[in-house]
Specification:
homodimer, alpha+beta, 60s Ribosomal Protein L30, Chain: A, Phosphoribosyl-aminoimidazole Synthetase, Chain A, domain 2, 2 domains, 7-stranded mixed beta sheet
Amino acid sequence: MADAKTTSFNLSCPVPRVADDRIVLAHGGGGRLTHQLIEKIFLPAFSNSMLEQRHDGAVVPVNGARLAFTTDSFVVRPLIFPGGNIGDLAVNGTVNDLAMSGARPLHLSAAFVLEEGFPVADLRRIATSMAAAATRAGVQIITGDTKVVERGKADGCYITTAGVGVVDRPLQLGATHARPGDAVIVSGPVGDHGVTILLARGELQIESDLASDTAPLSDLVARLLDATTGVRCLRDATRGGVATIANEVASAAGVAVVLDEAAVPVRPEVRGACELLGIDPLYVACEGRLVAVVDGDRTDAALDALRSHPLGRDAARIGTVREEPPGLVLLRTEFGGTRIVDLLIGDPLPRIC
Amino acid sequence: MADAKTTSFNLSCPVPRVADDRIVLAHGGGGRLTHQLIEKIFLPAFSNSMLEQRHDGAVVPVNGARLAFTTDSFVVRPLIFPGGNIGDLAVNGTVNDLAMSGARPLHLSAAFVLEEGFPVADLRRIATSMAAAATRAGVQIITGDTKVVERGKADGCYITTAGVGVVDRPLQLGATHARPGDAVIVSGPVGDHGVTILLARGELQIESDLASDTAPLSDLVARLLDATTGVRCLRDATRGGVATIANEVASAAGVAVVLDEAAVPVRPEVRGACELLGIDPLYVACEGRLVAVVDGDRTDAALDALRSHPLGRDAARIGTVREEPPGLVLLRTEFGGTRIVDLLIGDPLPRIC
């Protein structure tokens, strides 16, 4: 398999070097360049054990409690799209990062960078959606900030949310905990959000009823964790999609992740759009789906728990953790072949969140 | 005084109505329009008791601890200026918001919105400054995010930091606690940061040795709180400067704040630049100065404590809280007159933080 890996790298376009280069859109895509930026710039500068865990949320002891803390900026274009807008996306995104740490989300902050000339009515609509999303997720937005930049900057509105929560359960979740024999589960169809954003930009001129899957997953996670102690790792499949999570797990735990293409739930509209674009739905962002790595013996309990919740109705086991080849993600294709699923180098869908 | 207040409003330019208007730069200036945006859009949407306190940091109970939580976005232009850059500014700003809540700052998040084409070397320099500022303030940057937007957006780099801390002391700080007889103290010369940014833009073509006062104030606050229990309210004098804080105190506590112009420490270079520009240093942002409202009987203890710290060496009592006229800030000018110091409607120095 070492040969296959080498071949795969050689087929890719040259990896731009972070050290002496300029920022490109793919640095924000969640794939290889984002990882490089973290490794080359942020980890050396901010070096500490929490950051090195490379989870979207950090868990730290504060006065005896296990506090989860996370942040995300949202620069999605367009601001309003079928199924949601930048506001509920920003709330759900941070709620989900907290939930993936095993935390009960409690409080959110919201910082706005607004463009001069942005309609106040749009801001009101976005704020109202944020409030509704917060209520749905059982959190409060308790602090915030507003900055304004000149016309032509900031595309109307960027939002950065941060969130705090508490890990009540005696959990140790993390990609490093994955072990051979574990099951890889996804909570529903993948790629809805990314394809919805793409269609909303009108570039493909496709009509569709597809909507973003943006949703708070904290309740679904609680249902899963109530049902089984076999959960090793939880991730929400945002930028970079399921393929990127599988790579992070394989790399962090030094295991192989073998995915079964036929088992991955993908809506026909998403599949169709991806075929037109030549992209793989495994890399397309969801905003309301989680990937769980679960003790293989607890697969059924985990699937039953997820499927008993409206947001996990279509949960499916999509793969297995194996010992070999360590660090690689393999896909059993629907045609019976096997191919390597690597981290993306470019960003096929920039600014989807 | 009611007449004076009315007159003051009549002399101002018409206040744009938030409800049916568009965002203007002054919505981010920290003055009247920022307050309107909060009152008309964010408070109604996110309605909860913490936000209504209108402090930069929220304090909430979490598993028995009093957790402080705050966020700020930074869009300063230029990114690098005498005395600092957007990185240490972003760390110090959030550390200071936590400190003003009476909290011991613990952990920070950092979310970057980068412009395509931004030099990676500049990002490294900024990240290194953030790390140094975090070390100086005794906090860790434990979680983060990176998004990239197209060339022409985001002026290179916007940073949003959020922070958590713990309030260990049995404190109840807040602008509502100000009482007649209290002293108003500032920890050092005002306006250094705002004027430094303005000069760094080169628009005034003035040479100067002035540098931003950006600094973490948590240690200074600890020194003050150790020395006296008479502290009612702490604010860092950022956007809108000392004048805006005085207005927030007057309005929140239903008191008058009477400032003594001759007592306000202002460096000659800052005074000179402000005279050239026709702006009042009382409105110009600092990034390393706090305003404390302190029990009048504890003034000396508070001043001694502040002056014993390098960041408070030039602390001065600049005013007094009075009963009448409630809600107003009055300035005893150096020429013996008295004038009303209102919230600003425009933003004389946009994007200084």
